[in-house]
Specification:
heterodimer, A: alpha/beta, D-Maltodextrin-Binding Protein, domain 2, five-stranded mixed sheet, globular, B: mainly alpha, MetI-like fold, 2 domains, 20 helices, iron (chain A), metal ion binding (chain A), Thiamine pyrimidine synthase (chain A), NMT1/THI5 (chain A)
């Protein structure tokens, strides 16, 4: 299964290293807490609303907390689990969360209702993993392959589907769309020919069922959008700017660790944060691998993880406009990232 | 008297003998069903990714018992608290409503409104209103409240006229009537409410985890669905069913223990009701109550927004909704979208309502006539009610399609269970001397059913028809969200993903208004029929 099988010895070494680091961190914590604090700034507590139940999708954040990357930047982060019915934007507006992750078009739509109060400060996934998945026996490789077929569209993605098909010259009479949920039973059972999925997640289920999935990324056909962007309200940014910056530093360190080797992130997800979710190392390792190319791109290699380049922001705005939502550059604020990296391409 | 006693004793003896062979039959039929399930799943449905075989479920349960135990404990604790508080509130409210008619007139519609609110609309509100644990308990409590309220009122009003007249003749007031007559005779129906509530509380607790959780059956369900781990998904379904079925069976036993005294009370004509007022006055009074309770609902809506100081991003006031629908420049366009969707939803709800009600009543009658069928199928009916609909949907779509067939199937599953439970209780609450009379005339089973049992069960049938009305509307929106992708159910989900909370509140308000109207129509029909057959239920 894994493309890069780690030798047992190597894995053990990593585990030992992880435990040692953890031990050192704990020792550091306990020693610093026993001596009177000499630093002036106090620790700020932030609530971070994730969008789904614990998965390696948030692996970098788990590493950041466990390795003390947040603490080193004087923030204590409550990582709140999400789920299918969590509305992160509402949680921000209601003050239940300081930071939430979402997709740029969702943020833009919420802004249309919230008077432009929300702002994106970093981009976790440089490329949206949203894709149409079909079976290799009846594949959908290009938008034209959708013609004459039944496509499963989760209700939340209906607008995206409309824009995607319009962008690619497919009219609504060329195919049939029906609602589906986040399981791939409709495709496996032949109820639909293809359905909207996250290319990083559901194809694993199809592989496990012994079939070969074909995934067509929307990003490869004109729908250029970030995913899992970090969102805050403008009030929070004004009042807790230092803390938000500290949070992002911790995140970047956590994701750098993940990119170097996702083993620790996977282990933390399966055995700690998501231990009651019945996850497996095998599935989460696969998901971690599938996520890698959307976290690490040429842009992040040049400017650092979570970076938002001017060209990518323009592409995002164009996509959001194609969805019929108004948006401009004020939706994105790159100043925190600029302050953090200071022109470097990684955080020490 | 001795003849009756002998008849009862011999009936009890022969029922003991019958019980043994009945259990044999039940076991046999259950094993057959299991084998059928295994064969169907192995040969066909597992490969399509919609249904796990019993052996796959057992394997999954045995492989990771501690995982499931932890999830059951987490979800169970939420369900138990939600069940307790929801039922407590419902029983107290039921007693107050029956004792003080004015309060019922003003607040019953508010209770109904809470029941009618679509889950998709309620979830983000709960998430923002309470801490995560309280939000889940509140959702479970809301899921059980209304059905128990209706059952409680049904039970309290089932008190026979004779004993009530007696209490009054001895100088007892409404308090004494409640203590001595209404509460004892209402207990069976209340217990039915508690029984139905078990399944609803478990479902509420599972869905509560969809607003963010690290542990519980809902979390296992989400991961299982996403990875299409069918063994996991259906193990969760089986566990949810067991969590609903165990209390269902336990309270069934409790009811059987308390029933003999309440069902053997002899019946007598109730105290003559007060002279009816002229028709225009009656209509005027009814309208005044409707208007009053509408004011109560609007006041509660506003109070909720203020008390919990809900962010205006999510919380929309009645005024905002009014502007959106009436005075806004775009109001006409807004209305048109919602009207079109409402038309679709009404068809779905209407068809589903009739199907669900018919299925429930027919099942209850068949169960009453052929007890073996009841024993064999009761676990299946509880399963259908307690398995999260999101798990069943792929199977249902595969079998019934995404058209009206699928709509009918899903709506029926959501609505028929309370009908079955209430009507079954109603059929079994026939006074012993009425049955004895029919037996002494050598009446056939069918004739006893038509002449005695069904008329006695009429209040239960109508109570079910009332509960089923808003349930059918809710179920129709659920179907629209999961299978058909149109109607108001779709609008609500879409407006949530667009953060268009004004449209969401407007759609929810329209749905609720339709449910209230639907409920009132059934109530009016009920009053017309019960005036003739069962005046005590009219309060």
């Amino acid at each position: 299964m894994p493309r890069l099988p780690l030798r047992t010895a190597a894995r053990t070494a990593i585990a030992v290293a992880a435990v040692a680091t953890l031990g050192a961190t704990l020792a550091a914590c306990s020693s610093s807490s026993s001596t009177p604090a000499s630093t002036t700034a106090a620790v700020t507590t932030l609530n971070y609303q994730t969008s789904w139940i614990p998965l390696v999708q948030f692996g970098g954040s788990y590493v950041a907390e466990k390795e003390g990357y947040y603490a080193a930047n004087k923030v204590k982060v409550n990582i709140l689990p999400g789920g299918p019915d969590v509305d992160g934007m509402a949680a921000l507006e209601a003050g239940k969360a300081d930071i939430a992750v979402s997709n740029p078009d969702v943020v833009a739509r919420a802004n249309a209702q919230a008077g432009g109060n929300l702002v994106i400060v970093a981009a976790g996934f440089q490329k949206s993993p949203l894709a149409i998945m079909s079976l290799s026996t009846n594949p959908i490789n290009t938008p034209a392959d959708m013609k004459g077929k039944k496509i499963g569209v989760p209700t939340g993605d209906a607008a995206t589907n409309d824009a995607f098909t319009k962008l690619n010259g497919i009219s609504s009479s060329d195919y049939t769309s029906v609602p589906v949920s986040f399981d791939v039973a409709p495709t496996l059972s032949g109820d639909v020919a293809g359905q909207y999925v996250f290319a990083t997640e559901q194809p694993i289920a199809v592989e496990a069922a012994g079939k070969t999935p074909t995934t067509m990324l929307l990003a490869d056909h004109g729908m250029n959008e970030y995913a899992q962007v970090y969102v805050v309200t403008k009030d929070t940014l004004a009042k807790k700017r230092a803390a938000i910056e500290g949070f992002l530093k911790g995140e970047i360190k956590g994701w750098q660790n993940y990119v170097a080797d996702p083993t620790e992130a996977v282990a933390l997800t399966v055995n700690d944060y998501g231990k009651s979710g019945g996850l497996t190392i095998k599935e989460q390792t696969r998901q971690a691998q599938l996520q890698m190319p959307i976290i690490v791109t040429d842009t992040t290699k040049a400017h650092g993880l979570l970076w938002m380049s001017a060209e990518d922001i323009d592409a995002n705005i164009a996509t959001i406009k194609a969805l019929g939502v108004t948006a401009d550059k004020s939706l994105f604020d790159t100043s925190l990232l600029e302050d953090i990296y200071q022109g470097a391409s990684s955080l020490k | 008297m001795t003849a009756i006693a002998t008849a009862r004793a011999s009936a009890r003896r022969s029922s003991g003998r019958r019980a043994a062979s009945r259990w044999g039959l039940t076991a046999g039929a259950s094993i057959l069903l299991l084998i059928l399930w295994e064969v169907l799943a192995d040969a066909w449905l597992s490969r399509l990714g919609v249904l796990a075989s019993p052996s796959a479920i057992v394997r999954s349960l045995v492989q990771t018992p501690e995982l499931y135990a932890g999830a059951v404990a987490a979800t169970g604790w939420v369900a138990v608290r939600g069940w307790f508080f929801g039922n407590l509130a419902a029983i107290v409210a039921g007693i107050v409503f029956v004792q003080v008619r004015a309060i019922e007139q003003l607040f019953l519609r508010l209770a109904l409104t809470l029941f009618c609110l679509p889950l998709v609309a309620v979830m983000p509100l709960l998430q923002l209103t309470f801490d995560p644990d309280t939000a889940k308990v509140a959702l479970a409590a809301m899921s059980v409240f209304f059905t128990t309220l209706v059952s409680t009122m049904l039970g309290l009003r089932a008190a026979e006229g004779g004993p009530l007249t007696m209490v009054r003749a001895w100088g007892g007031g409404t308090g004494a009537s409640l203590r001595v007559v209404r509460l004892p005779s209402g207990i069976p129906a209340m217990i039915t409410g508690l029984q139905i509530g078990a399944a609803a509380a478990v479902l509420g607790a599972v869905f509560g985890e969809f607003i963010g959780s690290e542990t519980g059956l809902g979390v296992l369900l989400i991961n299982g669905l996403q990875m299409l781990n069918l063994g996991r998904v259906w193990s969760v379904a089986v566990l949810a069913t067991l969590m609903a079925a165990v209390p269902y069976a336990l309270f069934g036993l409790v009811r059987r223990v308390v029933s003999p005294w309440s069902s053997s009370i002899s019946t007598a004509a109730p105290l003559g009701s007060t002279r009816p007022r002229p028709l225009p006055a009656r209509i005027g009074i009814a309208l005044a109550w409707v208007l009053g309770s509408l004011l109560v609902i609007l006041a509660a809506w506003w109070a909720y927004l203020i008390v919990f100081s809900l962010s205006p991003f999510v919380g929309k006031s009645p005024l905002t909704v009014f502007q959106y629908l009436v005075t806004d420049p775009a109001a006409a366009a807004n209305r048109e979208v919602l009207q079109k969707a409402l038309g679709v939803t009404l068809v779905h709800a209407g068809v589903g309502y009739l199907a669900g009600l018919a299925c429930g009543i027919i099942a209850a009658v068949v169960f009453a006539l052929v007890p073996v069928i009841e024993i064999v199928l009761t676990p299946l009916t509880i399963a259908l009610r307690s398995v999260p609909i999101i798990v069943l949907t792929p199977v249902l779509i595969l079998v019934f399609g995404r058209g009206l067939g699928g709509v009918v199937a899903i709506t029926t599953i959501v609505t028929f269970f309370p009908t079955l439970a209430n009507v079954s209780t109603g059929l079994s609450r026939v006074p012993a001397d009425a049955l004895m009379l029919m037996r002494s005339y050598d009446s056939s089973t069918l004739s006893t059913l038509a002449r005695v049992q069904l008329p006695y069960a009429l209040p239960a049938i109508f109570a079910s028809a009332r509960i089923a009305a808003p349930s059918a509307v809710l179920a129709a929106t659920l179907t629209e969200w999961l299978a058909t992708g149109d109607g108001l159910g779709n609008i609500i989900v879409v407006s949530r993903s667009y953060s268009n909370y004004t449209q969401l509140w407007a759609a929810a308000a329209i749905l609720t208004a339709v449910s209230l109207l639907f409920y009132s129509l059934v109530s009016a029909a009920e009053r017309a029929v019960l005036t003739r057959f069962e005046p005590s239920q009219l309060g």
